[in-house]
Structure to design on (128 residues):
């Protein structure tokens, strides 16, 4: 969830609905990123959604993992690089399997204010 505050009155185009200046807003990132109008079959693992052509065809605010604008995450690039290096290191040296303790399909824990999987994801990692 991204928390923001309207700095000025904002009226949505084609409507009479206005957000008054000073209104505190909570932007539901998970709701946007699992909207079937933006991402067909949102629960399906589909890395092709993030290929250049697919990304260019969507509204730029349809993926906000790190926020956007002047208050976006300062560690965005670092997080991307760190994730890539970590995954490459693990996948290059180890075999990774889901453990029997992991519930499949995953269930989202709705009692937590951020995206969390109930009972966690348990992995078996063995030398390749």
């Amino acid at each position: 969830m991204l928390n923001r505050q309207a700095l000025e009155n904002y009226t949505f185009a084609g409507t009479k609905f206005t957000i008054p200046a000073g209104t505190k807003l909570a932007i539901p990132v998970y709701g946007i990123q699992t909207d079937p109008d933006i991402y067909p079959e949102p629960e399906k693992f589909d890395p092709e959604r993030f290929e250049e052509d697919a990304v260019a065809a969507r509204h730029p605010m349809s993926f906000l993992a790190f926020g956007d604008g002047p208050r976006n995450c300062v560690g965005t690039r670092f997080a991307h690089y760190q994730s890539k290096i970590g995954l490459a290191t693990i996948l290059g040296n180890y075999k990774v399997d889901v453990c029997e303790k992991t519930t499949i399909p995953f269930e989202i824990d709705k009692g937590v204010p951020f995206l969390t999987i109930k009972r966690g994801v348990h992995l078996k990692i063995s030398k390749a």
Summary: The chain is about 25% helix and 15% strand.
